[in-house]
Amino acid sequence: MPYFSRLILLLFCLMVLVESRKPKKRRWTGQLETSKPSHLYKKNPDMTKIRQGKPQPLLRVDDHDFTMRPAFGGPAIPVGVDVQVESLDSISEVDMDFTMTLYLRHYWKDERLAFPSASNKSMTFDGRLVKKIWVPDVFFVHSKRSFIHDTTTDNIMLRVFPDGQVLYSMRITVTAMCNMDFSHFPLDSQTCSLELESYAYTDEDLMLYWKNGDESLKTDEKISLSQFLIQKFHTTSRLAFYSSTGWYNRLYINFTLRRHIFFFLLQTYFPATLMVMLSWVSFWIDRRAVPARVSLGITTVLTMSTIITGVNASMPRVSYIKAVDIYLWVSFVFVFLSVLEYAAVNYLTTVQERKERKLQEKFPCMCGMLHSRTMMLDGSYSESEANSLAGYPRSHILTEEERQDKIVVHLALSNESSSSRKKGFLKGQVGLRIFQNTHAIDKYSRLIFPASYIFFNLIYWSVFA
């Protein structure tokens, strides 16, 4: 048994020895192996990965407390500001605000950011460094909405010079309030302002000023608005006082806008004028054409109401009268008076016809006279006029009491000689005949209405234009 175990152990050792002497198989790499010098297999060292110790940063941000302003405890730090207006996007009369896109730049000196430089070149950073250092806390007074553009990255630039001078620039769109006066609308000019101020630092800690005076504000020459003409951009500055915190430096970007009138001439003034002129057409229509004159008057009144409603819908609900309100409401009054004029004509026509029917019933014989004429039956008619009634019964001649009534009997006028004799008396009764003859009301309206409206337009445009 021991012999057998020794034999198995010997065979195992022989097998291991044979396997160890066999050549090892090499993996195929698809390339022919050639003999190369052994020194080429040695890899050259990468010098970029060799560090000669930890480098020292140029800006020692971690060595200072940037929660405090520069020169804390000393005089106020001056911060210069300049602005480049990129676009004036919109002006809203309803919300009383405007939207502007601009480049806002700040200039100040922070010796904590100074660094040595042989070439005196500045270093430029993006918005990531802004969160680590002190920057002015400028905000827009009376701002409703504002944001910093972030496409494709945050539009923030920080440039630091070797002596510690800092340039901080950002691209902002802001919507701010603008107090507008619409008393002369749409013949008005509006002055709006964008106000900048430090939120936390008073004038004792931070002095905010325009870096180059009026030259600190630059605008793009292509800026334009559909309804306004931009007349002027200028800058101002003053101190603002808050009872709780104190005095602050405040900068103003002022711009004046003048409204284009042509749009409102086409949309408001011309339609209103045409409606007034259209209402005058009824003066030339026959007074008996009731449907035509009534429908024309109602149409013009409703159209004027629609124009007034449309203008007020696009305007803020102010408590004072605007210039356009004066024009539209005066035009509405003219249109409404033309409707009342026909109502008066129609009423007087009805009264006149009623009186004529009564006279015809009272004097039926006169309706058959061949040579009809107008006669004043007041006891003063001539002998020839009396002879003309000789063939008629006595009962048809007026009594003394009836002659005292001085009634004018209107018959068809065909005898010119008789009417000429009565001309002097008829001149004294002009006022009465205007109301008795409804055609006269229309004739006078054809002159009075246009003349009054032209006179109103002359006064309106001389005052507001």
Automatic annotation (TrEMBL):
GO terms for biological process: gamma-aminobutyric acid signaling pathway; visual perception. Coiled coil: none annotated. The chain crosses the membrane at residues 261-282, 294-314, 326-348, 447-464. It is found in: Postsynaptic cell membrane. It comes from the Eukaryota. Residues 268-461 form the Neurotransmitter-gated ion-channel transmembrane domain. It is a multi-pass membrane protein. Residues 62-260 form the Neurotransmitter-gated ion-channel ligand-binding domain. It catalyses: chloride(in) = chloride(out). The keyword Disulfide bond applies. Keywords: Cell membrane, Chloride, Chloride channel, Disulfide bond, Glycoprotein, Ion channel, Ion transport, Membrane, Postsynaptic cell membrane, Signal, Synapse, Transmembrane, Transmembrane helix, Transport. GO terms for molecular function: chloride channel activity; extracellular ligand-gated monoatomic ion channel activity; GABA-A receptor activity. InterPro entries: GABAA/Glycine_rcpt (IPR006028), GABAAa_rho2_rcpt (IPR008059), GABAAa_rho_rcpt (IPR008057), Neur_chan_lig-bd (IPR006202), Neur_chan_lig-bd_sf (IPR036734), Neur_channel (IPR006201), Neuro-gated_channel_TM_sf (IPR036719), Neuro_actylchol_rec (IPR038050). Residues 1-20 form the signal peptide. Gene3D superfamilies: Neurotransmitter-gated ion-channel ligand-binding domain (2.70.170.10), Neurotransmitter-gated ion-channel transmembrane domain (1.20.58.390). GO terms for cellular component: chloride channel complex; intracellular vesicle; postsynaptic membrane. Belongs to the ligand-gated ion channel (TC 1.A.9) family. This is GABA(C) receptor. It comes from Moschus moschiferus. The gene is GABRR2.
